[in-house]
Structures are given as structure tokens and as C-alpha cells.
Design brief:
Order of helices and strands: HHHHHHHEEHHHHEEEHHEHEEHEEHHEE
Radius of gyration: 46 Å
Strand content: 15-25%
Structural class: alpha+beta
Largest sheet: 7 strands, mixed
Number of helices: 17
Length: 553
């Protein structure tokens, strides 16, 4: 049963039913009448025809009275009144039965003790005293009742049983003891109910806490069998507690979770906890799952009853560390690039100037003209590279403003439609909900142009470039550029975004790196997914606001 199910079960657990005692008394009355009355008649001094008639009438009366009591209990009103009423009716029934079958010498006189005991258990101390007093009065009144009914009572000197005074004392004592016992039973039941409610409350509180923890909790009993997984553990490990509870760990945990299994079993076998360990597992999709984990022993007195493992998925932490290292490396690379770019530009300027002078003064032909053209073309390419390098290394302050993403991408679509490289490309805009970005207009425009340029070069003469946006996580808006180009190989996809990495023949490897850096400075992320031969999708998540109105295409 999961934590949520346990909470529902304990939360809905019914408390003690106060009418349970009266219901039990009704069934007990029927049982005694059905079994004990015939036996009493058979064991009587003379089982005459009259005795059997008394038996049948008694059974009929008991059945009718019990039915009426059952209906009254169903109404659920006047618990204390019904309790004393049932005790009173039972005293009347036993008194009548005893009076008709021999008075004080009747074999049914001991039934007074049963009524007294029932009165004490149902009505507690007051009920015991009431039933005891009533039984004593009824017993003493038996001769008078027999006389009224025209029957000859047994004289005291003819009686062979215990003296009336002794029996009266016995019934009074039973009443007191039964009432005392009823009080103790009631107090004990109340204490148990309070304890049960407290245990349920503590259990529910624990379940609620465990269910809402973002940290995984996993327990194993002393036999190495899976015990409990909270929802966070189920999500991280890709397991379901209902499918694995009670199974040995070596069977329940798949091979991808072998390091976790071995650590927990080692803790159980060696009786040594583990603090702040790190494991590398595999998630159900086969990707790496770094886990930070601590294990400890579950103890009952001096016995080890199991192991609890507390762990957390470190994927985001490792990703943050990777980004921090990357940013640190990029910062150092930017400083180095700035120095290199300045030195290159200082050398390119006189070279470019000298080439222009030579082209104006000399009339070169043939191979010399080709070589001069090569020098000029490569000088221009190096100048563009230096410009990109300086742009990558310099970080001007961002001028944030609210930008209508729909209008902004419309302008980009219109601009791309006039680009010669997009002559055979279908540039589409798939509008979403009206939204505004909080961004630097020129910096973000440079991101869009870099992404669009890469898409156009990947598609060549024809294809489809789709621009769109959708609500992202939190206050982010996802802007997507999807093309139908050649795609990116899986090995190359891991390198995308690194400075100077490029698959283009004349690329610098700085365009996407610059775009990614601009996006990160805005507090967003840039991710690339690609299927070789089918195209590439770049998703840029940026801070913004989604409005309620829809934007027309």
C-alpha cells in the first residue's frame, strides 16, 4: 500500500461504536434464550407440559423484545436510557421465568447474575448497582409474586439451596464488581481509542512528510526485502512500491540499480552506515543517473530491523557544476580571445591596406591576380573572424525591454524572406499565445539571426524553417527554430555550442557560442535536438509573460 493509500485508510478509520455493546447484548440474549432455556427446562426438577409452555412463551417474548430493541438501537438515540431499559426488561423476564418455574428454587435464578454482569458491563458502575439492586429486590419478591399468581411458594425450611440473604449478598457483590469492571473496561477502551487516534495521527503525519519530501526514502527489512519507497524514490528510481514491496532486493531491483542494491545490502551485512556517498546509476531510459546517498540502520532496542537509504538525484547539481566550469572556462577563453583578436587586427590592418594599394597601382594578370585576390579574400575572412572573436569576448550591458514576441518573429520572417539564401526555403511562423519577452532587442535579434543562418545553411536550396513559441516552465517562454535540414550527428551534437567547434567548411565555430552566451546572460537556456537526415530543432527558453489573448498569424 502506498503512502497516499495509507493516509486515506488511517484518516477514514472509524472510532469506537458506542452502540456496539447494546447490539452484542441483543444477540447474547437471543443466544441464551435459544440454548440455555431448553437446557434449564430439561434440568429442572420436573419437566412438565406447563414447563414447556413457559419455555415457548419465554422464547416468543425474548424474540419480540429483542426485535424491538434492535429497532430502537437502529434509531441511535438515548443510549443510556436504552441501556437501563434493556437491563430492566431482562430483570422482568428472569423474574417472571423464575416465578413460573419454582420461585427461589427455580433453575433460572442464576440468570439474575447474568443480568447483573451485563448491566455492569453496559452501564458501568451505575448500571451494575442498578442491576444488582433490581436483582436483589426481584429475588426477594419471588414468593410474593408466586402468591399473587396463585402458586404456592416454597417455604424457607423446605428450600435446599443457599440462604436468601447469602444470594442477595452475592448479587449485590456481583453488581459492584461488574460495575467496577465496566468502568475499567470503558476507561481502557477510551485510552486505547486515544492511543489509536494518536498513532494514526503520527502515522498520517509521517506519511504526509515522506510523501512530500523531494528526497527519496527507501527502506529494506532485516531479511533484505524491499519495504517502503516514497513517491520521490519511485520517480527517481523508476520503481513502484506496490510491485516490489516484500520482494528480495536482488530480485526486485534491476541491474541498472545494482550499485544502490549492493550499497544497501553491504550496510545491512556489515552493520555500518554510509554517509554522503555518490553512485552512478542508470534511469529507465538508459541515461546516467548520479545519486547522492546516505544509509543508516533501523534499530529496535539492540536488534537491526533493516536499513533506510536517503538519496537525491544529482543530475541538476552536476549540470549546474558543468555550466559553472564551462562559464569559468569561457570567461578565461574570452580574455585570451580578446588579446589574440587585438594582435590579429593590428597585423591585418597594414596587410589589408597594402593589398588595396597594390591592387590600385599594379595591373596584375594571370596567376598573380589570382594570388592577390586570395590574399584579399582571406584577409577579409580573418577580419570577420576577429570581429566575431571580439564580439564573443566583449559583454556590453543588456538594455532589457518588453518585446512582443509575435511581432518580433514576424519581422524576422519577413527579413529572411528577402535573404538570397532562403530563395527556395519556406519560412513559416506558427503563432502561439500573445507573449512578451524581457530581453535586449539587438542582442536577441543577433541570436535569431545566428539560428536562422545555421538553419538555412543546413537546408541548402530548399526546405522548411518553422518559427514558433509556447509557454515554458515557470515564467519562461520557449522560442523554437525547426528546420528540415541534414541534421547533426549524435557525436557532433554533444560538441554543439562549444567555441571554435564547427562542421562548416568556412565556419568559425563562434556563431552558436555567441548566441548561447547571450541567452544565458538573459537567464535562459538554449538546447539543440536533432535527428540526422530529418532536421534540427533549437529551443530557446527566455524570461517573459504570456497574455490571455491569442495572436493571429
Amino acid at each position: 500500500m502506498s503512502a497516499a493509500n495509507r493516509i486515506e485508510t488511517h484518516g477514514d478509520a472509524p472510532s469506537h461504536d458506542p452502540w456496539h455493546g447494546l447490539r452484542t447484548a441483543i444477540w447474547a440474549r437471543l443466544l441464551v434464550a435459544t440454548l440455555a432455556l431448553p437446557i434449564g427446562v430439561l434440568l429442572g426438577p420436573a419437566a412438565t407440559q406447563a414447563s414447556w409452555w413457559v419455555l415457548w412463551w419465554a422464547l416468543l417474548v425474548v424474540g419480540a423484545v429483542s426485535a424491538l430493541f434492535a429497532l430502537a438501537v437502529q434509531l441511535g438515540r438515548g443510549l443510556r436510557v436504552q441501556t437501563f431499559l434493556q437491563v430492566s426488561v431482562d430483570l422482568v423476564l428472569v423474574t417472571a421465568l423464575a416465578a413460573l418455574t419454582g420461585g427461589r428454587e427455580s433453575q433460572f435464578v442464576p440468570f439474575f447474575a447474568l443480568v447483573v454482569i451485563a448491566g455492569g458491563l453496559l452501564g458501568r458502575f451505575a448500571g451494575g448497582l442498578f442491576a444488582g439492586a433490581g436483582a436483589c429486590i426481584a429475588f426477594l419478591a419471588l414468593p410474593a409474586l408466586q402468591t399473587v399468581a396463585g402458586m404456592r411458594p416454597v417455604a424457607a425450611e423446605e428450600a435446599g439451596g443457599p440462604a436468601p440473604g447469602l444470594l442477595v449478598a452475592f448479587l449485590a457483590t456481583v453488581g459492584v464488581l461488574a460495575g467496577t469492571l465496566g468502568e475499567r473496561v470503558r476507561r481502557t477502551r477510551d485510552d486505547l481509542e486515544r492511543t489509536t487516534r494518536e498513532l494514526d495521527r503520527v502515522r498520517v503525519d509521517n506519511d504526509v512528510v515522506l510523501r512530500h519530501l523531494t528526497t527519496g526514502v527507501f527502506t529494506v527489512n532485516g531479511a533484505g526485502e524491499v519495504g517502503y519507497l516514497n513517491p520521490a524514490a519511485e520517480q527517481v528510481l523508476g520503481l513502484r512500491v506496490l510491485e516490489h514491496r516484500g520482494r528480495p532486493m536482488r530480485e526486485a531491483l534491476p541491474e541498472r540499480l545494482a550499485p544502490l542494491r549492493d550499497l544497501v545490502l553491504s550496510t545491512l551485512e556489515r552493520r555500518l552506515p554510509t554517509a554522503r556517498a555518490e553512485l552512478m546509476l542508470k534511469n529507465p531510459a538508459g541515461r546516467n543517473l548520479p545519486l547522492g546517498i546516505s544509509t543508516n540502520l533501523l534499530m529496535h532496542e539492540q536488534d537491526v530491523t533493516g536499513v533506510v537509504a536517503v538519496f537525491q538525484d544529482l543530475t541538476e547539481v552536476r549540470e549546474m557544476e558543468r555550466r559553472a566550469r564551462r562559464n569559468e572556462t569561457l570567461a578565461e577563453l574570452g580574455a585570451l580571445s580578446a588579446g589574440i583578436a587585438h594582435e590579429l587586427r593590428n597585423g591585418l590592418k597594414p596587410i589589408s591596406g597594402s593589398v588595396e594599394c597594390l591592387q590600385r597601382e599594379l595591373k596584375l594578370e594571370g596567376e598573380n591576380a589570382v594570388l592577390m585576390e586570395l590574399i584579399q579574400r582571406e584577409s577579409q575572412r580573418l577580419n570577420r573572424f576577429v570581429t566575431d572573436l571580439l564580439q564573443y569576448s566583449r559583454e556590453r550591458d543588456l538594455a532589457l525591454e518588453h518585446i512582443d514576441i509575435g511581432e518580433h518573429l514576424k519581422e524576422l520572417r519577413d527579413e529572411l524572406a528577402r535573404d538570397p539564401r532562403a530563395a527556395g526555403v519556406d519560412v513559416r511562423l506558427e503563432p502561439g499565445e500573445a507573449a512578451e519577452l524581457s530581453a535586449d532587442r539587438e542582442a536577441i535579434r543577433q541570436v535569431w539571426l545566428n539560428l536562422a543562418s545555421n538553419a538555412l545553411e543546413a537546408m541548402g536550396a530548399n526546405g522548411t524553417l518553422t518559427l514558433g513559441w509556447t509557454p515554458g516552465e515557470g515564467d519562461l517562454i520557449d522560442v523554437t527554430f525547426s528546420d528540415t535540414g541534414v541534421g547533426i550527428a549524435p557525436d557532433d551534437l554533444q560538441q554543439v555550442g562549444r567555441p571554435f567547434f564547427t562542421t562548416k567548411e568556412r565556419g568559425t565555430g563562434l556563431g552558436l557560442a555567441i548566441a548561447q552566451r547571450i541567452v544565458e546572460r538573459h537567464g535562459g537556456t538554449l538546447t539543440v535536438t536533432s535527428v540526422p537526415g530529418r532536421g534540427t530543432t533549437v529551443r530557446v527558453a527566455l524570461p517573459g509573460t504570456i497574455h490571455a489573448r491569442a495572436l493571429a498569424a
